[in-house]
Amino acid sequence: MCGIVGIYLKKKNLHQKLGNYLSGMLDNMSSRGPDSAGFAIYNKNNSSRTYKYSVCCPSDFDIKKFEISVGNEFKDILIKSVSDHLVISTKTSPKLFLSFLGNNYKELKIIGYGKSIEIFKQVGNPKEIVKKFKLNKLQGSHAIGHTRMATESAITLDGSHPYSTGEDECLVHNGSLSNHNNLRRKLIKKGKKFDSFNDTEVAAGYISNQLSETKSMKKTLTKCLSNLDGFYTFIAGTKNGFAVLRDEIACKPAVIAETKDYVAVASEFQAMAHLPDVNKAKIYEPEPGVVYTWGN
Hints:
This protein is of the alpha+beta class. The protein has helices at residues 18-28, 63-73, 94-104, 126-132, 180-189, 199-214, 217-227; strands spanning 3-9, 36-42, 51-56, 78-82, 85-90, 109-114, 117-123, 142-148, 163-166, 169-177, 230-237, 242-246, 255-258, 262-266, 282-284, 291-294. The protein is built from 7 helices and 16 strands. The radius of gyration is 18 Å and the shape is globular.
């Protein structure tokens, strides 16, 4: 049992409230996932050529020394430090910058990158993680989050959601996949790399691989119904928005609340009870095997 949440803001003047809305949603989902938590914040209005790299550091990592070293290599570097995470901004291409980090700083854990996305995740109580990352102060256009109760793999950062396996892409998942080992082997042959044995990372890799071919989140998630075996509710994020899918048996819960200002998704309604005008929202359960998208 895990908790998944997402919120998409329809009006730009609400973007400053995104972190506040999401922090309440994750707090209220802590009962479904006490082991770890994470979230992805998007700003789809970022039109610059700057990439942002979300990185987790070990406790003894010398950030000051790193800033000097990476600044000497890349002149446009800007680094934001939040708890044990760094968000590194640069116009350097992902191919070059990710290679630089991988070759020179193997102790760093790269958890996502893109022009719009910032990812934060840790092991521990979700309510404490929300405080550590000062989530209530973050701004953006949309976000997804997860609280985890470990079933398929150990309680580690590698087992925490969201999983990002492509530029500005990420996935949170409540459920369990039965064919992830075979699918992982097929994706590795296609060039995908995985950092864990978690089934959700395989699903994220599958979605990234399909998106590169179909260019459509709706078509990609529809293919999941044929190729991913098990029980699942997904929220898949991109720079433009997010999508929701429940498998055709739909034993994993989900509820959607939509108003003129936002769309909110969660495993349980209690996660959305604090949102403004939620009692006036259109509230419904996503139908089994149907893809719902906003912004994509």
